[in-house]
Structure formats: structure tokens, C-alpha cells
Amino acid sequence: MNPVQTAHVRAHVAAVSKLLLGDKVMSPSLMILAGDPLNPPVRLEFGRTAVESRVDLIYLEFVVDDAGVPVMSAIDMFLPRDTICYAWTGCRLSLLPGKPRAVIAPKNEVRGHFKVLPGEVVQVRSKPAALVAGMDRAAERVAALVRDGVDLKGQVVLREHVEA
Question: CA 131, 132, 137, 138 torsion: positive or negative?
Fold first, then answer.
């Protein structure tokens, strides 16, 4: 990605972080990462890394559209519990009515949804009826946060790793 595309992805990471955490401070046991879509071997490595480091990983997948703009296409999660790692792919954000923070909605065949706490991702067994409708609300909110900017000072540390 070029510097403009990288800045766009960074703005999305900030927006998604704010939408998931609200005003909470992210702890070191949770990481939000972003990049190109992951292939199966890389997903296995992410799971292994999550278990070894004991960190819940949320990965925002981006594809570059025909206009050269990175578009968030999915959310993957790697959640180490004991000695194994649970992984969900193809998730999306959902903003439920009356709630200030978004949740993560897995594919339809997966039970429940996920809420993000400052240091971990927690599965909630229920699937609210408004979960699918909330996906459009979340997308609109992320777009507004990207457009307007987000202040994460003292809440989240954003770092870039650009491969040479």
C-alpha cells in the first residue's frame, strides 16, 4: 500500500477501535491489527501467535477497490483460551439501537455475537434481532469517524509496520 492508502487504513483502525471500546483504555492483552486478507497458513500463524502471547487478536481485512481505496472487507478474530485458539473469520461490526459501542457479528451460522472489553473479546450467546440491521449503522458510524477523525490519546496506541 502507498502512504495515502496506509493512512486510510490507519484511520479505519482508529475508528473501529473507538467504536468497539468507547472511552475504555485498551489493555496489552488485546490487539487490533489490519492488513490484506489472510490466507489459511497465515491464519494458523495468527492463532499460534495469539496462544503464545496470550493476546486476543482482532484483525481488520482490507481489499483495495478499483479506485485504489482500501475497503474493510471483514473482521477475523483469534481468541486464545487455555492452550487452544478459537478463530472466527468473515465477521462484521454491528451497532445495536441505543448502544454506544459496537459489537462484532459473526457469520449467520455462528451462535451469538461478541463484545469487546478493554482486555479481551467475550462471546455473548444470544443473537439480537437487530444485529443485521446494526451492520449498516456501524458502517455509517465508522465512515463518519474516519471522515471526522478520532482522538485515541491515552486510550489506544497506534503503530505502523510497513514491509520494505
Answer: positive
CB 74 within 8 A of CB 50: no
- The terminus-to-terminus CA distance of the chain in angstroms comes to 11
CA distance 129 to 75: 20
Residue 1 confidence (pLDDT): 77
Looking up cell 478474530 gives 77
The boundaries of the domain holding residue 136 are 3-148
Of 18, 46, 21, the C-alpha closest to 120 is: 21
Please count the structural domains in the chain: 1
For residues 112 and 66, give the distance between their C-alpha atoms in angstroms, rounded to a whole number: 34
Whether residue 25 lies inside any domain: the answer is yes
Has residue 164 been placed in a domain? no
What is the predicted pLDDT for the residue at 38? Answer: 95
Identify the CA nearest to 13 among candidates 27, 29, 31, 39.
31
pLDDT at 159: 62
Per DSSP, 99 falls in state -
Q: What is the mean pLDDT of each run of 10 residues along the chain (164 residues)?
A: 88 94 91 94 94 95 93 96 92 92 88 91 88 90 93 68 53
